[in-house]
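This week, look over our next protein:
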Amino acid sequence: MLAGVRPGRRADARAAFREIDGAFLCVLGAGIGTAVIAVLRAVEFLLATRPVGTFGFFFGLIAASAAVLLGAVDLSTVRRKAAAVFGFGIAFLASGAPATGLGSPLPVVFLAGAVAVSAMILPGISGSLLLIVLGQYGYMASAVGRAVDGLAAAATGEGTDALVASAPPVVTFLCGGVVGLFTIAHAVRYALSRARAATLAFLVSLVVGALRAPLVETSIRLAERGESWGAAAPRFAIAAVVGAALVIVLDRYSEAIEY
């Protein structure tokens, strides 16, 4: 028996755990965590070895998502048009930030976590898209990879130095996510409840403006490799078509499920 814990309270805790189907939630959380780590490790590898194709794929995903979402946008009023222009402008300008050497200091990582987590309630927008816009997707994929390697080293008795060294960006990102969940996400939820059409116009325009991000990131990688856009364009285009096709197929499949 644990000291200081009354049997009645433990029984209540077990009952509450069963009521919310805690076992299922734990398994679900473990599955989501495993999937996130696996995807980030795969993206880390692809960005290091096939950056043009990877960002081309992202471009296709974003373009097709924008095309699908545009059908739900109503720009019949001046306020909605203004919201759309404002959203596009923010995303377009933010998408150029990586090229200006924004980097990944902890304050930027904190902001990225807050913004990415808020995407949970943004219609048609993913946290990955927002991380790409902020130029933090590749960095966080690498940071999570280092943290996982550090955790594995600690578990096998190789010391905790690697884990401690890799922890700051991951912990900062998670802290930003918690703050974003209670601030940015709440603000967006409030905006959707008060002015849904204008808010949707703003959010969808963010997606359209974000099309600049993969182009900027690809240009950076090409410059690092001494490669021209002319040589890389076919790879980028093919990957973009694959990404767009994936979104379209998933959209039609989800509609079939709904009906």
Summary: The mean pLDDT is 80. The radius of gyration is 21 Å. Residues 229-258 form the longest helix (30 residues).
